[in-house]
Write a structure and sequence with these properties.
Elements (H helix, E strand, L loop, with lengths): L2 E6 L7 H8 L5 E4 L8 E5 L2 E5 L12 E4 L4 E2 L1 H13 L9 E4 L3 E2 L2 H13 L12 H10 L12 H22 L10 H15 L3 E2 L1 H10 L4 E4 L25 H6 L8 E7 L2 E3 L12 H9 L12 E3 L1 E2 H11 L3 E5 L9 E10 L2 E3 L6 H6 L1 E8 L16 H14 L3 E5 L7 E3 L2
Parallel strand pairs: 1-10, 1-11, 2-5, 2-10, 5-7, 6-8, 7-9, 11-15, 14-16, 15-19
Antiparallel strand pairs: 3-4, 12-13, 16-17, 16-18, 19-20
Helix pairs in contact: 3-4, 3-5, 5-6
Bound molecules: guanosine-5'-diphosphate, 6-O-phosphoryl inosine monophosphate and magnesium ion.
Amino acid sequence: MSATSVVGLQWGDEAKGKIVDLLTDQHDIVVRYQGGNNAGHTVVFEGKKYKLSLLPAGILRRGVVSVVAPGVVIHPQALLGEIEQVRSQGVAVSGDNLLISDRAHVIFPYHMAEEAVFERSQKQNAIGTTMRGIGTCYRDKAGRIHAIRMGDLFHPDMFRARLTEIVAQKNIILRALSSDGDFRPFDANAIADEYLGYAAQLKSHVMDTTQFLHRELDAGKRLLFEGAQGSLLDIDHGTFPFVTSSNSSGCGIHNGSGVPERRISRMIGVVKAYTTRVGGGPFPTELDNEIGQHIRDVGHEYGTVTGRPRRCGWFDAVAARYGARLSGIDCLAVMLVDVLSQLDEISVCVAYEINGERTIDFPSHITDLAAAKPVYETLPGWKRDVSAVRRVNDFPAETRRYLDTISTLIGFPVEIMSVGPDREQTIFCD
Ligand code: GDP
Ligand code: IMO
Ligand code: MG
């Protein structure tokens, strides 16, 4: 049995894409199981940069099959655009190496329109979503009556009839909620035509991926699960309501893919050597100062999907330890270690003080998280470029001490370290 899982332990953008890409040569199938084109995974090798959003990173490795599983929400136009983009970079994409679940739910233009209305209506408390219709599509999935899945696109008459009913109701809701009075109703037939066109282009990829994965597992194939977002953005276990709308911790692998978690033999938790967050919500170790800006500049911390500046802060071991426990990890991958190289001192949050009480438990309510004052341990910086280091022993003693501190605080060994975006800039512990 050999299934590996790669999951982010923070608020996303931990460089999961880089780790998944590195591991694809030891796996036969890569599975994306939740999220949608809110994700942005950057992979760099041989002087080329690939930006993936819906496509699993397995698409970049010849001979690997990439699966988009039932738990993903799909914007077909975005998916087709991404396929074109990677093809233009020389990547082969066909019905042989990209499989899309017929159970995956479909994002429609009214999902984006609804999200725009709801996000705009929130003054202080906007979630700061990616505006890709992710939350509104998942809401319709849970509500069922307004939901359409990829498989429905291959039953044109039923699909058109259903969409007609849905769009009529969406138009009523959107008209009522539009404040500017210039609401233009959606045309169900035009959307149906458009989406049936996408379905025709995607036909060779769409199938029952759950059955496929079960069959391949029985045949001894090696699976690699690619998480999107991060554990703290999990809809059930994250910093609600400042979360995404899927189970983006390790908890989502089973329900999103249809593969039982007991079949997973290795769970890798990915963290940055510091913390970032995009969008709203409490962030105890946020550095709203020149150090935060330094990290943002050196780490190029601007969103892949929306281009928004990412909020930056010190490594938060309370938050990452919670993410690690939630996701059931075996080991850690610590990424972007090089970004901290110029700092004189580096702080790590070892505990929170909430209303005068010290704790290492991550609070379940955001008012407590918002009140949390980080308790820091400050370590000396290494003040040396480490981007060319390829063996643990070649790290400065201060870097090793920093990595050991993270490992001890989270309670798991660091097995992978990354000192730059390229595949080559990676250190594996034996
Ligand atoms: P993901 O969403 O978790 O896959 O992460 P993103 O791709 O959104 O963000 C990680 C960014 O850091 C990407 O631009 C990567 O190319 C880059 N990156 C990955 N590892 C390293 C590293 O060790 N050092 C530096 N400087 N950049 C890295
Ligand atoms: P990857 O896979 C970082 C954040 C958004 C927002 C919240 C909800 O690249 O790590 P949504 O559009 O999902 O409803 O937005 O979640 N968010 C991410 N932050 N990395 C991501 O993905 C994210 N996907 C969503 O910024 O705060
Ligand atoms: Mg990202």
